[in-house]
Design goal:
CATH class: Alpha Beta
Distance between the termini: 7 Å
Helix content: 40-55%
Number of domains: 1
CATH topology: Glutaredoxin
Length: 85
């Protein structure tokens, strides 16, 4: 299974929703909390091509995007193959 990294903020409902889907699928992930901003959020924005909203989700080297993008991949049947690539 591909490594999954998700950048979140503790108060973000979209982050919680994305985490819920990953948990339902039994995915192990690295969660990086950027609630405090600073270097972690700046690094996330660089990695996400300037996107500063959360969550920002990466599966392997693939930038998935945010919560809506993650759910869209799942609805299209493309999330499981990406996770298992």
């Amino acid at each position: 299974m591909q490594p999954v990294t998700i950048y979140t903020k503790s108060w973000c409902p979209y982050c919680h929703s994305a985490l819920d889907l990953l948990k339902q699928k039994g995915v192990n992930y690295e969660q990086i909390d950027v609630s405090a901003g600073g270097e972690a959020q700046a690094a996330m924005a660089v990695k996400a091509n300037g996107r500063s909203s959360v969550p920002q989700i990466f599966i392997g080297e693939t930038h998935v995007g945010g919560c809506d993008d993650l759910y869209a991949l799942d609805r299209a049947g493309k999330l499981d193959p990406l996770l298992n690539a």
